[in-house]
Write a sequence for this structure.
């Protein structure tokens, strides 16, 4: 059975990059090499793999990738740190709960 991976990289400028691939090791090496000078990570080396999720369904992996790309930095950080309480807190509606929580 083929595997697909959703992953989060941390970049040297303290941003996150979210991607999806069917070969995680190869893809991370591509990011780290900066071989595609037009890619987001090429200008932000070095990069470090912070989190990944293995899926068997490519459609599910794409769905998860798109979902995470829409998240705030603090929500991605909570996922990476497996801080489930913060992940739930940062998912709350701003109009109801305000924006008093500080971003990292």
């Amino acid at each position: 059975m083929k595997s697909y991976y959703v992953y989060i990289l941390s970049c040297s400028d303290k941003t996150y990059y979210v991607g999806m691939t069917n070969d995680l090791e190869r893809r991370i090496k591509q990011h780290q090499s900066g071989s595609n000078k037009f890619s987001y990570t090429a200008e932000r080396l070095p990069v470090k793999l912070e989190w990944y999720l293995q899926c068997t369904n490519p459609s599910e992996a794409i769905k998860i990738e798109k979902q995470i790309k829409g998240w705030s930095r603090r929500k991605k950080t909570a996922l990476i740190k497996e801080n489930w309480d913060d992940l739930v807190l940062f998912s709350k509606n701003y109009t109801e709960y305000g924006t008093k929580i500080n971003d990292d």
Summary: The chain has a mean pLDDT of 91. The longest strand covers residues 48-55.
